[in-house]
Amino acid sequence: MKKYQVVILGAGAGGLSSASRLLKSGIKDIAIIDHADQHAYQPAWPLVGSGEEKKTRTVKSMSRVIPKAIDHIQQRVTRIQPVERKVYLDNDDFIMYEYLVVALGIQLDFQEIEGLEATLGRNGVTTNYLYDYTDYTYELLKQTKAGNVIITKPKSVIKGGVAPENTLFTFDEFIRDQKDNKAHLIFKSGKDTLFPVEKYRRYMEKHLNNKHIEYQLNQELIKVDGDKKEATFKEWATGETYTLPFSMIVVTPPMSAPDVVKSSTLSDEQGWLDVNPFTLQHVRHQNVFGIGDCTNLPTIKMGAAVRKQMPVLVSNLLSQIKGKQLKAHYDGSTACPIATEYGQAFIAEFGYDMKPKESMPIDQGKTNPLLYQVKKRGIPLMYWNALLKGKA
Ligand SMILES: Cc1cc2nc3c(=O)[nH]c(=O)nc-3n(C[C@H](O)[C@H](O)[C@H](O)COP(=O)(O)OP(=O)(O)OC[C@H]3O[C@@H](n4cnc5c(N)ncnc54)[C@H](O)[C@@H]3O)c2cc1C
Q1: Is 13 a domain residue?
Q2: How confident is the model at residue 69 (pLDDT cuts 50, 70, 90)?
Q3: Strand (E) or helix (H) holding 208
Q4: pTM
């Protein structure tokens, strides 16, 4: 059994950036627990699926990104016991902590869609939500010359909230640019709106209409038959189901809190890590903090949100350690870059009040080649060289 002053669960965007910042702030006794041997820059995966990025450029080994002074315990967390201040691992060992940061990300529930797991990566069925299939998405796009190309989005909360729309717009341009291509692009979203912020919803609608892209809301993918190349949807409003043939389908799966959070006493009624939305401190355990996709923070789950949460978390955790009042506040800031074609993007940026809160001195709701470059080149550079090193 080992004990650390700070234990961080998950070496993704939230866990790693918090670990680096805590280390720089003078906390030396830190362990980070993550079974993965690679860290991924996931926002680039839709770019891989559209042929704009190489898959291998989106990952680095954990040993390259975790600071040497931090212990990486390469195990899966199986149980969290906050009263005993213990975390159990899948080798049956446990680790004790004084302070805990939970940064376990979100769970992909592919199993919720009947038949999907059996055919994923074959028969024209793909996803940009798993590293392994991102390049298969682009292979399929290049091969497909006719039939339905379906892009799906579930009703559930997801990470990278507009990843399906990024794929949709670039696919539209790719297909239209080929004179002999008769493929028919369709967007099926389980959501009841195109975007939760009115200004950007209008822009999204305008682009879809101007490009004559077929889209339907309140449509949930519930079954995939890979051999028959058929997808079944449920219409949320009526409960009715119907089946469509496809040549290719890009699935964004339903998502939920990680099981290990759901089954712990740290969760809220929906299973998310129950934190104060402003201080990021757990609502019942003062020595526990949370960041990123596994939390119940009512904002869109993005790396951009993690970037704004991390300094707040670290500042408040340090105050908690020193017995001081928690003064740093997170306002729900998040940002969603949306490529409306290859080389053009807009960036929706807003807070808990769902009102635009743009950080650049231009109208970020209007498409712009500069915003595309910010998405494709600028943000990844900032991610690897600043955020993961604890600089927000
Ligand atoms: C396709 C796609 C497109 C996206 N597009 C954008 C975008 O354009 N802009 C943007 O800002 N964000 C985007 N995102 C979202 C962004 O990647 C996430 O919001 C961000 O990574 C959240 O950070 P996190 O630390 O909460 O979770 P993650 O970065 O996912 O890290 C979670 C970590 O926890 C580990 N873990 C999980 N369970 C366990 C366990 N039981 N034991 C030990 N370790 C565990 C995982 O291995 C992982 O390393 C996108 C994501 C995807 C997948």
Answers
A1: yes
A2: very high
A3: helix 198-210
A4: 0.98
Residue whose entry in the numeric block shows the structure tokens 């006493």: 265
Both structure tokens of 361: 């001195």
- Name residue 116's amino acid: L
124: left (phi over 0), alpha (psi -120 to 50) or beta: left
What is the DSSP secondary structure assignment for residue 375, as one 8-state letter? Answer: I
Name the residue range of residue 32's domain.
2-106+257-332
Q: What separation in Å is there between the alpha carbon of 291 and the centre of ligand 1?
A: 11
The residues lining ligand 1, judged by C-beta closer than 6 Å to any ligand atom, are 10-15, 33-36, 42-43, 45-46, 76-77, 103-105, 128-129, 159-160, 163, 258, 260, 292-294, 301-304, 306, 337
Residue-wise pLDDT for 189-215, tens only, equals 999 999 999 999 999 999 999 999 999
Instruction: Name which residue sits closest to atom 11 of ligand 1, judged by CA.
Output: 303
The CA 41 to ligand 1 mean position distance, Å, reads 8
39 CA to middle of ligand 1, Å? 9
Q: Are both 148 and 39 inside the same structural domain?
A: no
Q: Report the separation in Å between the CA atom of 386 and the middle of ligand 1, taken as the mean of its atom positions.
A: 17
Q: Write out pLDDT tens, residues 338-388.
A: 999 999 999 999 999 999 999 999 999 999 999 999 999 999 999 999 999
